[in-house]
Structure formats: C-alpha cells, structure tokens
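FW: tagging you since you asked about this chain on Friday. Here's the raw sequence from the shared folder, copied in full. Didn't touch anything.
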Amino acid sequence: ESPRWLMTHGQREAAEKTVSGIEQTVAQENQEVLKQPPRAEAIKVHERHRFGLAAILKPMVTTLRTRSFLGLSLMIAQAFVYNAMLFTYALVLARYYGVPASRTGLYLLPFAFGNFLGPLALGHFFDTIGRRQMIAATFTIAALLLITSGYMFWRGALTASTQTILWTVMFFFASPAGSSAYLTVSEIFPLEMRALAIAIFYSAGTAVGGIVAPWLFGRLIDSGSRFELFGGYIIASALMLAAAIVEIVFGVAAEQASLEKIAAPLSSAA
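HL: got it, structure written out here
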C-alpha cells in the first residue's frame, strides 16, 4: 500500500516499514546514504480512518474548483478527440476514399505507432521543460494538425495514405496530451480524493467523448458532405485549443515536485 495512505489511515508502523525498505534499496543501488528531507518541509498528518464523500467532494467545488475545471477541460478534450477521430476513421476511409472494410485495419495500424512513440519521445520533457508548457504545446500542436488536415480533406487534397500519415503525426502529439490529462488529475488533488477525482473526470470525459463524439461524427460522415465533416474537425480542434488555454491559465507547475507540495493531504488540516 502507499505509505501516504497507510499514514493517513493510522497504520504508521506499516508506512515507516515501507519507506525504510524503499530508502534502503535506493541507498544500496546508489551506494550512499539518503539525506533526510529538511524539517521545514515536514507536514503534520491527522489520522482519519474514514473520509466521508462530502469531505472529499466539497474541496472540488470550493477551494480546488479551478483545478477541477482544469482537469475536466483536459479530460473532455482528449476524450472527444480520441473517440471522434480514432473510432470513426474506418467509416471515413470507406465513405470518402473507397477503402474496403477488410483493409481499414491497415490504415489504423500507423496510429498505434504514433500513440506509442509520442509519450516515449516527449514524456521526459513534461518533467524538464514543465507541465504547463508541454501540456499546452501538445494540445495546441495536435489541434493545429487536425484543423490543417481537416481543411485539406475538405478541399480534396488528401488520399487515404496521406491523411493517415498526417493523423499519425497528430496522434504523436495527441497521445502525450491525452496522457497528461490523466497525469494532471492524478497529481493536483490531495491524496484522499485522487481516485475519486479520476473517476469523476473520466466519467465526464467519457460521457462527452465516448457518447456525443461518435454520435456526432457518425451523423456527419453519414451525410456524405466533406464540409460538414470538416466542421466536426473544427469543433474537436477548438476543444483542444480551449484545453490548452485553460492549461496556460490554470495549469499547475507539478514537475519535479513532491505530491504534498502540489496538494497537501486533507488529513494534514487540523
């Protein structure tokens, strides 16, 4: 179990044992004794074996409402784009490019590489350059690539292969952007409410992205109009750009910081 969770739930000895084991392992690997953190950074934790739902939800709409707005914005934007773009692409290929259903999977395969390579190549920079800068940048670049490819699609300037290439590049940036939404929600709230925050924002994102986006794009694709579908791409791009702006304004500088510095535990309050 997490030492933080154990400590707040009255299991101090188990928490100390876990931390000591981690410290010993790190000390052996680095061949040096770890320094104790400064006393000024210590926090006082009050044991609470149970945290009522009201005690967890109240901060989300009061003291942490801007962080809630941030998390909700990022989760909705990434869920909408992924559900709208990825899960309807086979329909686009068949409707507008005449790709047989038996071959659409071949065009989806490059997306897997883009989704994998994006976080692998860019993930490090979220800790070095900074959360706010990288989250805003990846959302913005993905949005610009989407609206550019959407315009080219509307004008008939793309083929099935060239649109797949452009979207593979887009997903290279959209994947770390989407991952950062989950990362943000998991670290900007006190430890007692992180799991619930993830559940709430994931549900909200899924409601918008998993239900509304496929329904909307299904209707747009069924219309057969490239211009109408381009309008859908504009909506998805606008959501990502809005999320980038929200990140710039309300983003939390969580890079290279302890979770307690990012958000003090609820149990640290008297």
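FW: The domain at 53-250 is CATH 1.20.1250.20 (Growth Hormone; Chain: A;).
HL: agreed, and DSSP finds twelve helices and no strands in the chain.
FW: great, closing this out.
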